[in-house]
């Protein structure tokens, strides 16, 4: 929400600067205001792009964490089963010896 508010504020400021530069200023100040508005719009667009990228990275990290937890569970199950098999093999050997 904070990123959205900052982006919206930046966009409003840039449009305000561009509008005031075209309407109220003249000459070189008009060009400077339009340039500044363009730079601010560029910053706004890049911040939107970065927000989308960071969201995708966070989703990917969560998926990796889920996979690692699942693999840890599976490896723990395999270890338990292996130990059960060893116990059963020893019990079978003892039973065959008797």
Keywords:
98 residues; mainly alpha; 2 helices; 94% helix
Explain how this protein is built:
The protein is mainly alpha-helical and 98 residues long. It has one domain. Helix content is 94%, strand content 0%. The chain has helices at residues 2-23, 28-97. The mean pLDDT is 81.
Structural class: mainly alpha
- Rg (CA only): 32 Å
N to C succession of SSEs: HH
Report low-confidence residues grouped into runs of 5 or more: none
Q: What fraction, in percent, of the residue positions are helical?
A: over 70%
**Assembly annotation:** single chain
* Biggest beta sheet summary: none
Alpha carbon gap, first and last residue: 73 Å
Number of distinct helices: 2
The 3D shape can be described as rod-shaped
List how many beta strands DSSP finds. Answer: 0
Overall number of structural domains? 1
Q: In percent, how much strand structure appears in the residues? A: under 5%
What does this entry show, briefly?
The chain is mostly helical and 98 residues long. 94% of the residues lie in helices and 0% in strands.
């Amino acid at each position: 929400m904070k990123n959205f508010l900052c982006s919206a504020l930046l966009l409003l400021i840039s449009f305000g600067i561009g509008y005031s530069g075209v309407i109220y200023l003249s000459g070189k100040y008009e060009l400077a205001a339009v340039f500044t508005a363009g730079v601010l719009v560029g910053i706004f667009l890049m911040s939107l792009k970065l927000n989308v990228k960071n969201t995708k990275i966070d989703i990917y990290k969560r998926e990796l964490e889920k996979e690692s937890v699942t693999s840890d569970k599976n490896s723990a199950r395999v270890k338990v089963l292996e130990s059960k098999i060893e116990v059963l093999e020893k019990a079978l050997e003892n039973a065959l010896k008797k």
